[in-house]
C-alpha cells in the first residue's frame, strides 16, 4: 500500500510537471510566436546535433566531431546548404534520412512552423498568433497602416494557409521527383538508387538547400538540360514563398486579383533572374575555368542556372572558387537579396528590396507616399524593410570580420561564404570546408541568425508596435 501511494504521488507530480511545461509552451506560443519560433528552431538544432553525432549517422560508424555535427544540424534545419564535411560520403543512409527530414522541417519556415506547433499546443491560434501567421503570409497585414482587405489574408484563412504550406510541399516535391527520375536513369543511376535520389534532389531543390546525394554532385548531369531545368523550377517554386503559391492557387492567372505582395515578389524575382544571368554571362564569358571552355548555348544556359542558384538554390556546375572577383561580388549581391518572404529561401527578401526601391523612386519623383499598382505602402512597412537591411548588413559585417580574423583568408572569399551562409544559399568558394572550429561556430551562428533573425525581427516590430496619442515637435537633421 505504501509503495502504491508513493507511486501515485510520483505520478501526480510528473503529471503536474508535464502539465506546467505544456501550459508554459501554450502561453508562449500564443503570447510571443516569434520567441516560440526561436525556441523551436533551437530545440530542433540541438536534437539533430545529437542525432548527427551518433556513430550510426556516419558512414565510418564513428562519432562525428561536435563542431561538424552542430554545423550540419544548423545547415540542415536552416536549409543553408553549406557543409564542413563531404555530405555525400560522410553520412550513412541513416544520416541522409536525417538530412532529408531536417530540410523539410526547416523549409516550413520560422513563423509557419511556430504557428503549426502553437496550434497543436493551444488547440487554437490566439489572436496575436493569427496576426503573426497572417503577417507571414502577407507582411502588410501585420502592420498598422491602412490595408485593402482584398490584399490581406483574413484571420479565417490562416488555417487554410498552413494546410497549403504542408500540402504544397508534399505535392511539389512529389512532382519534382517524378520529373527527375527519368533523368537520373538516363544519367546511369541504378533504378533503385534513383528511387532515393529523385525525392532527395526534389527536396533539396524546393527547400533551396542544394545538397547532393552523390559524391560527384551535378557534374554527371552538366549537359542534362531537362534535369537542370527541373531543378531550377523547384528552386523557383521554393523561393517565391508559400504566400505567393497560395495566391496563385486561389487566383491562377487573374493578375488583377493577385495581392501586392505576390506581384512585387514575382516581378522582382524575374528581373533579378534575367539581370543576374546577363551579368554573369558578361563577366565570366572568357574565364576558361568557368564559362570560357563552353559553347555559346552552354554558357548562356549555365549563366541562367547560376543566377537561379545564387537566389538561394545552392546547386552549382562550375567551381565557384574559380570565378572572377567581380562575379563573386555580383553573386554576393544576389544572395544577400535572396527569395520571397515566408519561403524556403533566405536573404533580406525580394519584397524588402522592392519596397526600398519604390521608396527611393517615390522620393526622386517627389511623391508624398510610396505607391505601387494602385496601392499605397504604409510607412511602417518601409521602416521594417530598413530594419531588416540594417540588421542583415550588421550580421554579415560582423561575421565577415570575425572569420577573416580567425582564418586570415582573402576577404572576398570570406564575404561570399558568409553571405551564402546568412542567406542560406549553400554556394561556397571552398572556404567553409576548411574552417577551423572557432570559425565553424561563427558561421553556424550566422546561418541561424540569417534564417531566424530577420523574420523574427520583422514579426517583433509588427507585434510590439503601439499607437501614440501625441506627437513630438519636428526637427530635421541633415541627411546625406
Describe this structure in words.
The chain crosses the membrane at residues 36-54, 66-85, 97-121, 160-181, 225-249, 261-283, 333-361, 381-401, 439-463. The chain has helices at residues 2-31, 33-53, 66-77, 87-90, 93-107, 110-122, 127-137, 158-186, 191-206, 225-240, 242-251, 260-284, 296-313, 325-337, 350-365, 379-407, 411-422, 437-464; strands spanning 370-372, 375-377. The chain is mostly helical and 480 residues long. Strands 1-2 form a two-stranded antiparallel ribbon. The longest helix has 30 residues, at 2-31.
Short characterization:
The chain is mostly helical. It has 18 helices and 2 strands. Strand 1 (370-372) and strand 2 form a beta hairpin.
In which range does the helix fraction lie?
55-70%
Radius of gyration: 23 Å
Q: What is the count of β-strands?
A: 2
Q: What is the general shape? A: globular
Please work out how many helical segments DSSP would assign: 18
Query: Distance N terminus to C terminus?
Result: 82 Å
Oligomeric state of the chains in view: single chain
Which structural class do the helices and strands define? mainly alpha
Q: Taking all residues together, what is the mean pLDDT? A: 81
